[in-house]
Design brief:
557 residues; alpha+beta; Beta-Lactamase; Heat Shock Protein 90; five-stranded antiparallel β-sheet; 13 helices; 15 strands; transferase; histidine kinase
């Protein structure tokens, strides 16, 4: 790898980090290849020497046997043995045969096994030649490996027969085994060629392999890759945002701890199909979506409002994967709702203040005109109207927070030129604090949506019905507006989807109905929509809420 340029620190390769004293990947691969080549050559040399030795032995045995048989059949040798000639008489003919045949040793023994002719090594004359193994029978030829003197030799032993068929002696032909150095010297030219070719191929292959690995690893060394993997695992599993990757086959290839917590995934989710880990259809569809251009896409899963961003990656020689980051936006949406509720309360108080100021001005003018009787009648009428409204709501809705909300929304509707009517069938007893809070959230959002829907319509009527049915509180809000656009009916409860118009003064963020569904589904209830001369929304909230999320998540929401 190229050295870092001290004058251009920005030219340092990615992940170069602090260099250690270890060898680079190219040198490691080169040393590994050369070591492997050396081991292979040693093995090949050993096998080659063994094959040469075996080949020498088998070939020499046949040749020694031929020489021994030829010598044993020589008439002069047979005659000398048959006539019990002295050893000096054997020297010339045996040496001539040894020289002619090119063997290292050519020995002649008598019937007792005593050497009587050894031209190559006269010291053996008179000694008994002990060849082990010896032939099974005295008249049998034998070939093999046996020691003669201090060296191993390829030996062939053939008996010499007289004219009467008796064994009168033996002929032993021998050839010395070449030493290892001699075998190496004979194989050296071929071995040098092999070493040279293997070395060139090994070096070239190592350089090409190192270059290819460098390209695939972006020029990083193995220890740098190891550090990056450790940093990546620490980062992925240490951040609060959830990270999950799904390939084209729908298999989860990565899921960090936060993703498992936010999505409720099992510990062994990685490697499993995404539609088999307990996610609902909307979550599966969102996590497998290939439209990665959208930013901060939101959806609800198990009562938690999640915001996701996606990136499509194409790993080399692998299937594309969609990497999704998840953030829990439940707290933020709840805060936005609380802020919206505060703003609505402020608007309601402003409307009531405006209404009170108008009435106060009316009373003041009547008093200035001296018509006290008319002023008293006007005060009685206003008081009676307010009392009737309060009594009408409080007798049906005994939960104070819900009753106060309906009274405030009625005043807001009057300020906006609309009519909010509580149905005569409405009936709600006191409920626990959690249900009261959820009812205020659901009724407030549905009524606000209805008032926005009738803005600009010829008839501006909103009807609210709250009843307890079979252990659940059913909230129904209907309006005389234009209803929901057919293109949005299937997505009206999704976050970010809204049919409100900015020109109509509505909040077009699309959080209201999503919050209603979040609250209802969190308690184990439901919310639905139908068209009936306008829009009709119905939410069902169980009195004993079956929360589907953990206590920690409940406190956040």
């Amino acid at each position: 790898m190229a050295r870092d340029d001290p004058e251009h620190p920005t030219a340092r390769p990615r992940g170069s980090g602090i260099r250690s004293g270890r060898l680079s990947l190219t040198r490691q691969l080169l040393l590994f290849q050369l070591s492997l080549i050396a081991l292979v050559l040693i093995a090949v040399t050993a096998i080659s020497l063994e094959q040469s030795r075996s080949s020498f032995e088998s070939g020499s045995q046949r040749r020694m046997l031929t020489v021994a048989e030829y010598t044993a059949a020589n008439p002069l040798v047979r005659s000398l043995l048959d006539n019990d000639a002295v050893p000096q008489q054997f020297s010339v003919p045996v040496e001539a045969l040894r020289t002619t045949t090119g063997v290292d040793q050519l020995l002649v023994t008598d019937a007792a096994g005593r050497v009587i002719a050894s031209p190559a090594d006269p010291r053996l004359v008179g000694s008994v030649l002990a060849i082990d193994p010896t032939p099974d029978t005295s008249d049998a030829a034998w070939a093999g490996v046996a020691p003669i003197g201090a060296n191993d030799n390829v030996v062939a032993q053939v008996p010499v027969l007289s004219n009467s068929g008796e064994v009168v002696g033996t002929v032993v032909a021998a050839r010395r085994f070449p030493a290892v150095t001699e075998l190496l010297a004979s194989a050296a030219p071929n071995l040098l060629v092999y070493v040279g070719v293997a070395g060139v191929l090994g070096v070239a292959g190592s350089l090409l392999l190192a270059a290819r690995v460098k390209r695939q690893t972006l020029g990083l060394e193995p220890e740098q890759i190891g550090r990056l993997v450790e940093h990546r695992d620490a980062m992925i599993h240490g951040i609060r945002e959830g990270v999950i990757a799904v390939d084209t086959d729908g298999l989860i290839t990565l899921a960090n701890d936060s993703a498992r917590t936010l999505l409720g995934l099992p510990a062994d989710a990685e490697g499993r199909a995404i539609d088999t880990v307990g996610l609902d259809e909307e979550a599966v569809r969102a996590l497998r979506r290939r439209e990665v251009g959208a930013i901060d896409t939101v959806f609800v899963n198990r009562g938690v409002l999640l915001v996701l961003n996606q990136t499509l990656i194409h790993p080399p020689r692998s299937r594309p994967e969609v990497v999704t980051t998840l953030r829990d936006r439940t707290e933020l949406v709840t805060l936005q709702h609380d802020l919206g509720s505060s703003r609505q309360a402020t608007d309601t108080l402003r409307a009531q203040t405006h209404e009170f100021a108008n009435r106060l001005h009316t009373i003041s003018m009547l008093m200035q005109l001296g018509d006290t009787e008319a002023a008293v009648e006007y005060v009685d009428a206003v008081t009676r109207d307010r009392t009737e409204l309060d009594n009408s709501v409080l007798t049906r809705l005994q939960e104070p927070a819900v009753a106060a909300l309906v009274i405030a929304k009625t005043s807001l509707a009057r300020e906006r030129g609309a009519t909010l009517v509580l149905s005569p069938e409405s009936a709600l007893a006191r409920v626990d604090g959690d249900l009261s809070t959820d009812l205020v959230t659901v009724i407030g959002n549905l009524v606000d949506n209805a008032l926005d829907a009738v803005t600009g319509a010829l008839e501006r009527n909103v009807r609210l019905d709250v009843q307890t049915v079979s252990g659940s509180v059913r909230v129904t809000v209907s309006d005389s507006g234009p209803g929901i656009d057919a293109a949005l009916i299937d997505r009206v409860f999704e976050v970010g989807v809204s049919s409100k118009s900015l020109l109509a003064g509505g909040d077009s963020h699309g959080y209201g109905l999503a919050i209603v569904r979040l609250v209802a589904t969190r308690r184990g209830g439901s919310v639905g929509y139908r068209a009936d001369h306008g829009a009709v929304f119905e939410a069902v909230l169980p009195v004993a809420g079956a929360r589907s999320i953990s206590d920690q998540e409940q406190t956040r929401v």
